Amino acid sequence: MQISKRISGLLGGGSDGWDVFNRARDMIAQGTAVTELTIGEHDIRTAAPILQDMHRAAMAGHTGYAAVPGTTSLRDTVAARVQKRTGVPTTRRNVLITPGGQAALFAAHMATCDVGDTALYLDPFYATYPGTLRGVGAIPQVIRTRPEDAFQPRASDITPYAASATSLLVNSPNNPTGVVYSQATLEGIADVCKQHDLWLISDEVYDTQVWEGEHISPRALPDMAERTLVVGSMSKSHAMTGSRCGWIVGPEEIITHLINLATHTTYGVPGYIQDASEFALTRGDALEEEIAEPFRRRRALAKQVLAQQNAVALVPAQGAMYLMLDIRATGRSGEEFANDLLTAHHIAVMPGESFGSAAAGHVRVAMTIEDAAFEAALRTLCSFAEGLA
After folding, report:
1. Final residue of a domain: which of 284, 312, 335?
2. Which family does it belong to (predicted)?
């Protein structure tokens, strides 16, 4: 008996990028105290009013099969939110509710890529991107961005690959770099997509975490609504990572087909989770700003710490809950630095190489522990880097 090549080949024969994280978790399991600055998990949990509404909905009986496309009221709420933020007319017919953003990414590529099609994505990338593309049978083609450009992608770098491709996946605010793509960057991407008839899949799960600049959805650019699928999620905006509720927004025709896909795969999202998500979204901007505030505050704290030394440089931290730190002055790769830091000081960060080759010599720091501990860990990281440099 053999396992399918589609599953056995998800990682492309390489590491999944989580080696340092797994090592840190092993140390914790063995009783070692480790400061974890690895994954994008809020240090606060889902707000009590959201959980209370979830409990209310469950106790009221919304525990059976829910509507596969999502409840009408949640789809309406997501559509209204998207239209308000982007100005693009959006109705429930443009919305599919999914079990989180990752399921939405997979479904979006299932809808746009046939087996053997080339799917483009940018380096650095969130760790699941290439495996997601392989999982739908597409051929992943990575396009490197540059540290000297603050990891803003150049249209001229995408163009040579576009003619033979079917889709392009982008992510702004960006994980892992924390960069927010500029209007010029997104207009260049949009031009390439229109010139070469590409589907654009836009991962916008960090759209509420913008510290500098402005989040622009490429769906709002001229002539892009009919070729763009937007992925959203409750995970980051409302600290609902474990609730697994996300969405895809796109043209009505493709959403119709995606509903058919959901019928044959996930069969929807639990009703009480959807009700709680609707409740959370209707709390408005104030709740989203409250959940984002710790990261805004820690970013400011980090800039103060980093300004006091010269061994570690900060990639422009414009959004998301991460810092990308340039540690090339130490002479170490990101992986070597992260492993050495974990050994010496029991501080766990993610190597830049976990997210592709473009961020080699960098590490990603998640701003996901309380302020005093975060500041202390960052000062230790900088002191360690200065010793190496």
Report:
1. 284
2. Belongs to the class-I pyridoxal-phosphate-dependent aminotransferase family.
CB count, 10 Å around CB of 265? 15
Among 351, 326, 329, residue whose Cα is nearest residue 338: 351
Does some domain include residue 52?
no
The predicted-structure confidence for 281-302, as pLDDT tens digits, reads as follows: 999 999 999 999 999 999 999 9
Q: Do 12 and 74 lie in a common domain?
A: no
Measured from the Cβ of residue 195, the count of other Cβ atoms closer than 10 Å reads: 12
Give the number of other CB atoms < 10 A from CB of residue 304: 10
Distance between CA atoms of residues 285 and 40, nearest Å: 21
Q: What is the pLDDT of residues 235-260, one digit of tens each?
A: 999 999 999 999 999 999 999 999 99
Contact between 65 and 267 (Cβ < 8 Å): yes
Instruction: Give CA–CA dist 384/351, Å, rounded.
Output: 15
Strand, helix or coil for residue 176 = coil
Extract the residue ranges of the chain whose pLDDT is less than 50: none
Contact present, 97 and 75 (Cβ < 8 Å): yes
- Which phi and psi angles does 67 have, rounded to 5°? -55, 130
Backbone CA torsion sign across 335, 329, 324, 31: positive
Q: State in Å, rounded, how far the first CA of the chain is from the last one.
A: 53
Q: Judge contact between 161 and 118, C-beta under 8 A.
A: yes
State the total domains in the chain: 2
| 367/352 Cα distance (integer angstroms) | 16
Domain membership of residue 270 (yes or no) is: yes
191: in domain: yes
**Maximum separation of any 2 CA atoms in the chain, in Å:** 61
What whole-number distance in Å separates Cα of residue 17 and Cα of residue 354? 4
11 with 122, same domain? no
In a shared domain, residues 22 and 153: no
Q: Are residues 189 and 240 in the same domain?
A: yes
Asked if 243 and 293 sit in the same domain, the reply is no
| Residue range(s) defining the domain that contains residue 331 | 5-45+286-388
Statement to judge: residues 360 and 381 lie in one domain = yes
CA 57 – CA 326 distance, rounded (Å)? 47
Tell me the average pLDDT of the chain.
96
Q: Which tokens hold the place of 15? A: 């590491």
